Amino acid sequence: MTPFTLTNAQARRVFLDRHALSEPPQGAAKGADLLELITRLGFVQLDSINTVARAHDLILFSRRPRYRPKALKNLYERDRALFEHWTHDAAVIPMGFYQWWQLRRQRDAEKLRKHWSDGRREGFEAQFQTVLNQIRYEGPLCSSDVGQGEKRGSGGWWDWHPSKTALEYLWRSGALCVVGRDGFRKRYDLTERVIDNALCQPLQSDDQIAATIDWCCSEALARLGFATPTEIANFWDHISIAEAKSWCAAEKAQGRLQAICLTCADGAQRMSFARPDIAQDPALDIPPTTRLRILSPFDPALRDRDRAERLFGFTYRIEVFVPEAKRRYGYYVFPIMEGDRLVGRVDMKAFRDQDTLRVRALWPERKTRWGKGRQAAFETELSRVIRLAGVSQIAFEDGWLRDPQ
Q: What is the pTM of this model?
């Protein structure tokens, strides 16, 4: 039987719909409405870099321009509707998913104890009870509040003092919760004071582990629309590829999954999996909005760089850790989306002491004409972004419009 084939245009429509990028960016952006958006995405990655706005803020703003950072802070710290843990990186996640992170916490407990028990982090296990006792009696604390008198290095992850390492381990393994941030410093509290104990019970049977794997795979696929086992495993990043492969095989055998043929941007065909009703997916008949918008480098739609390249023909690598002389584009370059295409990337930064957003360089994608209409749409989008960035002016530096690379 010939597998159902998704054209590249159809694949983009499904993908953008699942990432809340198909409809026009509008709507309420706080409280229950904001939680609904984050639940739809699955999680929002946190990042401290603030050249224009922090990643989590731009991710939400690009979908709901009425969003302001205080709304996320309230949802997380005041309403306790979100918790913080890891997917592929630190993220805020709907509290309704907390129980499904127990497998991740248990696996982190084993993995991190093994990886961190080396010369660089020697002694952190001896600080567990001291740290827990201090938080129990003093309340939520940051890493700077613990380990007084311990040798402290530069502050990088490789040079944490033992109590800082203990804090991170106790958080990742479940004894502590992050309950908010001061600036970008995490505040930790005892999990027992924050989370219902019923959600914190260890997984002790194969059936419980299987239920978690099923949830992870099913919910990942729901947010991807179609995916390979590797893409399913990598979405939440706490089950293995082998576990995702086994799940796909079992679901396919039960008729709950089908193999499909995906057409990539370069015309190549790639096998993938989707639910049996993919051919009737409503997103196939809905053209994405033509609105131009600027995305965060950590946007969920771009997190899997290889998947984005296959679907959109857009090669993107963040160059934060690339020496300046070796960068192809810039330190922190923002992708630009228009309709179902990624049409360029822009290097820009908010200079808040000058009340100005400076556009240093913009590279259109190949075969993309940067004419007056697109420039007007870009400037309109910048006029929205500066409100999030906290400045009121836009300046274009000399030679800002570059040739495609």
A: 0.95
